[in-house]
Amino acid sequence: xxxxxxxxxxxxxxxxxxxxxxxxxxxxxxxxxxxxxxxxxxxxxxxxxxxxxxxxxxxxxxxxxxxxxxxxxxxxxxxxxxxxxxxxxxxxxxxxxxxxxxxxxxxxxxxxxxxxxxxxxxxxxxxxxxxxxxxxxxxxxxxxxxxxxxxxxxxxxxxxxxxxxxxxxxxxxxxxxxxxxxxxxxxxxxxxxxxxxxxxxxxxxxxxxxxxxxxxxxxxxxxxxxxxxxxxxxxxxxxxxxxxxxxxxxxxxxxxxxxxxxxxxxxxxxxxxxxxxxxxxxxxxxxxxxxxxxxxxxxxxxxxxxxxxxxxxxxxxxxxxxxxxxxxxxxxxxxxxxxxxxxxxxxxxxxxxxxxxxxxxxxxxxxxxxxxxxxxxxxxxxxxxxxxxxxxxxxxxxxxxxxxxxxx
Length: 408
Fold this sequence. Notes:
By secondary structure, the protein is an alpha+beta fold. It has twelve helices and 16 strands. The chain has helices spanning about 15-30, 80-90, 135-140, 150-160, 170-180, 195-210, 215-225, 280-290, 305-310, 320-325, 350, 395-405; strands spanning about 40-45, 50-60, 65, 70-75, 110-115, 120-125, 245, 250-255, 275, 295, 300, 335-340, 345, 360-365, 370-375, 380-385. An eight-stranded antiparallel sheet has the order 3-2-1-16-15-14-13-12, sandwiched between helices. Strand 12 (about 335-340) and strand 13 (about 345) form a beta hairpin. Helix 1 packs antiparallel against helix 12 and helix 2 runs parallel beside helix 6. It is globular, with a radius of gyration of 20 Å.
């Protein structure tokens, strides 16, 4: 078992310890008043852990505390891992960002785009260009999620059994063929919409590498980084945090929405949201990112590749507010663009949050989040278990609380 431990006096890394403690007291209130069940936190700077904290319960009803080795469902924090996998293959010449996805998944040839009408009788036109790898990485392919409930195409996904996850027994290759059979929301590259892009990217990784996604992750990312508890199935269910939903009127209720996901071997390997992990493991992943693609002598990506991936790739340096379709209620995303698998801050003043240019990261459905702060050489990982992530402004509050603790 590997756990996060404070490695140095926070003052040596430019933190005010009293200010760091504000993070703990703030989110302890979330637990004490019933908004969250529990959480884990790791803050590191210059490659060393300055602050680690755990609070609350991984299972309220069973009175099981959050521990150093609690396993959390990270959902969309899977996406940056899948994106790194694709970038590794790009560096090796096994794919190009401009490649049509149909080169790897033939059903993505001759895509059509929604123009109007109902889910049962949509109007469509041919796509003016192929869906390409970079469209998947930037969420500009025109794909969507059934759980959005915002568009007729979302309804078409749900009708095929794709709301949260895939129908029982359907593998990743079959799921990609289903998505390819449905119209795109818009012409590729013309808008941003959060969807199954990274799941499709995971299938591209499988085809380009000749390995299943779980094997590629294990051999090329998890084993090299020492991520011993990360996978598509929780290796020790006794350490798994229970999922909760906000209860009307206050408090929490256990969620059965995901069924046996994570506790049973999955049929579909979701590169968009299928992993469970621990604080230690995801901290290791963020340290690789902060290290320019390298950690403890193991290099997954070149620094120029990572720098390229963590710049804004939206046209005309647009942010998600102006280029994207509505996503989460917790933030307007003013001043935040999107790179190759990561959100990227381009204008901190526009977002009215305590941020710096170039900050990048992402979060998950159960209110988890991570951020890499290149200007401050700082990372933060926050893991918890509340769905949906838009319930409370956890992420902007966390960024402010971490940033205000840096004094030199």
